[in-house]
Amino acid sequence: MKKIKHLAACFSLLAAVGTAGIGDAIAQNDRNTTVQDGIEVRPLSRLSKLIPPEQLNEAAAQQYAQMMSQAQQKGVLLPQSHPEVQRLRAIAKRIIPHTTRWNQDATQWQWQVNLIDSKDVNAFCMPGGRIGFFTGILTSLKLTDDEVAAVMGHEIAHALREHSREKMAKQGLTNLGARVGGALISGIFGIDPNITGTVASYGAQFAGLKFSRDDEREADLVGLDISSRAGYDPRAGIALWRKMAALNQRAPIELLSTHPGGETRIRDMQAHMDVLLPLYARSKGTTVNKLPPYQTNVALR
Question: For residue 156, which of 247, 92, 73 has the smallest C-alpha distance?
Answer without folding.
Answer: 92
